[in-house]
Specification:
- Keywords: Hydrolase, Metal-binding, Metalloprotease, Protease, Zinc.
- One of its GO terms (molecular function) is metalloendopeptidase activity.
- Its cofactor is Zn(2+).
- This is M48 family metalloprotease.
- The chain is α+β, with helices and mostly antiparallel strands and 333 residues long.
- The chain folds into 3 domains: 90 residues, Pleckstrin-homology domain (PH domain)/Phosphotyrosine-binding domain (PTB) (PH-domain like); 28 residues; 204 residues, no CATH class.
- Helix content is 56%, strand content 16%.
- The chain contains 11 helices and 11 strands.
- A 7-stranded antiparallel β-sheet has the order 4-3-2-1-7-6-5, covered by helices on one side.
- Helix 7 packs across helix 8.
- The longest helix has 33 residues.
- The protein binds zinc ion.
């Protein structure tokens, strides 16, 4: 559609013949002698006719257009240009729409945090070369040995017995992403066991002493093997890295990334996983207990003994999500 009219150069009352070419795609071309400019409707400042004032179009570079047949331009303005502005204007005034939009954005962010990042971590973990979890596992064990753990006080024969028995048990397990390596350490803060990213399972002397039967000890070791099977350590590390990278991108600081990865590895090993990860490790252990011992009773017995022994105070890794512990024991039945 072409609207005949005239235009004024920037800051001038000079009047020149001009035409405005409005196409279907929202592009508007102003032709005024040698001055030809093409812009999107959205970039124009359009003043609808007001009283005796004609409809007028202001271009960003200062040119103004008015139509000969004012109603032509007025109609076009009414039908095309004003609509989006009116919609935005209405939205701006509608606080409910703004609150709803903000809530939608918040839900999308939470959704990405709750499901998107874990899903991405799950996938990325499986794309990592083996060398990464192996390096991290060795590095974390060294760090734990330097700062937290002491050599085991169990006699060598007892250690071998447990390792041998577990090696037999291992033959019945589904294929694991890493070879298991059971190591013994002592630590004064109560019975515990933790898996590292490379398949190392650290067993504390106090856990061995707490178990009254081999099946009871194995149930906790199998829980740790569940973490190895599902690669929870690496998933948690990748997840923390993703969150840190996302934070660094938003905040604009990416220093200390390598330190952060190591400390995350230590943190994950010593403080536990998400509830979902604990549930998965429990399920793995329960399934293997049923298969190898025909019962999950020894596992429930260990959970209960630990509850009695420690009450509400600091819980070890395999009992991390304490509020759900009752449910976890129920789930074993
Ligand atoms: Zn666990």
């Amino acid at each position: 559609m072409i609207i005949k009219g005239f235009c004024h150069p920037p800051l001038s009352s000079e009047r020149r013949e001009a035409e405005l070419d409005c196409d279907q795609t929202g592009q508007v071309t102003l032709r005024c002698g040698e001055h030809i400019v093409m812009v999107a409707v959205a970039e124009l400042k359009i003043s609808p006719p007001l009283g005796t004032l004609p409809a007028r179009i202001d271009f960003a570079d200062g040119w103004q257009f008015k139509a000969v047949q004012e109603n032509e331009l007025a109609d076009w303005v009414r039908h095309n240009a004003v609509q989006p502005q009116r919609w935005v204007h209405r939205l701006e005034r509608n606080w409910l729409a703004i609150v709803a939009s903000a809530a939608l954005v918040a839900v999308l962010c939470l959704g990405a945090y709750r499901y998107g990042i874990p899903a991405a971590s799950h996938m990325l973990t499986r794309l990592l070369p083996q060398a990464v979890p192996v390096y991290l596992g060795e590095h974390v064990l060294e760090t734990l040995d330097d700062h937290m753990l002491a050599p085991s006080q169990l006699d060598a024969q007892e250690q071998w017995q447990i390792q041998d028995r577990f090696a037999l048990l291992q033959d019945n397990l589904p294929p694991l992403p890493f070879e298991l390596n059971i190591v013994f350490r002592s630590w004064p803060h109560g019975p515990n066991a933790f898996a590292l990213s490379d398949g190392t399972v650290i067993v504390l002397d106090s856990l061995v002493e707490m178990a009254t039967t081999p099946a009871e000890l194995d149930s906790i070791l199998l829980h740790e093997v569940g973490h190895v099977y599902h690669q929870h350590v690496m998933e948690s590390v990748v997840q923390s890295a993703l969150i840190s990278v996302a934070t660094a991108l938003i905040v604009g600081d990416s220093s200390g990334m390598a330190d952060m990865l190591t400390s995350t590895g230590v943190f994950v090993a010593s403080s536990g996983y998400s509830r979902d990860a604990e549930r998965e490790a429990d399920q793995f252990a329960a399934e293997q207990m049923r298969k190898n011992y025909g019962t999950t009773e020894p596992m429930a017995a260990m959970f209960n003994r630990f509850m009695e022994h420690y009450g509400d105070s600091e819980l070890p890794e395999w009992l991390q999500s304490h509020p759900e512990l009752e449910q976890r024991i129920q789930a074993l039945k």
